[in-house]
Amino acid sequence: MRKVHPDAAAALAGLLRDGMTVMAGGFGLCGIPDVLIGAIRESGVKDLTVISNNAGIDGAGLGVLLETRQIRKMISSYVGENKTFATQYLAGELEIEFNPQGTLAERIRAGGAGIPAFFTKTGYGTAIAEGKETREFDGEHYVMERGLVADLAVVHAWKGDREGNLVYRKTARNFNPMMATAARATVAQVENLVEPGELDPDHIITPGIYVKRMIHVPNAEKRIEQRTTRKRAAAASAAAGTEV
To answer: What domains does the chain contain, in order, with CATH numbers?
Structure first.
């Protein structure tokens, strides 16, 4: 089966529908499937429930879907960089299901592993636990969290072969691998596309059996949410006239 498609629109053809649940990988703006997100925007699909650690920023990442009001609900951990998100949420136009970051990661991993629910100490006795089942194990209190499964996962990988085997790099590994296993269909955008057999089997993180379709994105944009810099110690000393 041919997995590599010429562009994002072709890769997502027939997979999108109103009201579906979408997982979007990455952390902040690192390792996000921005080209696939752009194609989701262009499709016009609406009333989406999106599972992602972040909600992007204004004008980038999932922020472009918020601008067009295609997202009905976010299941996230951190959304503090997006003013559009805050405006819609405070106006009652957007639902949010907040999760502690580790809990969100485990809910996705559990969904991919076929685990319907699990118990965690995190959030017990707080608003996170309201309306959820709690239990005591060995004198400790736990709250039950449900595994997450999506209709579609869109992920970003550093390298992949034409059979869908994927390798991630550094921070871009956050959330992408687990989401790739937790959806009924996974579409990946890959920076470096190689032929089958070129990847070291020990380096493969997501086996191709999880990936339905792919696109090659050789010049992926890599943005930084907030760039903070400081002078190096040697340069600062030299500028002050101090011998280093």
So the answer is: 8-216 (3.40.1080.10)
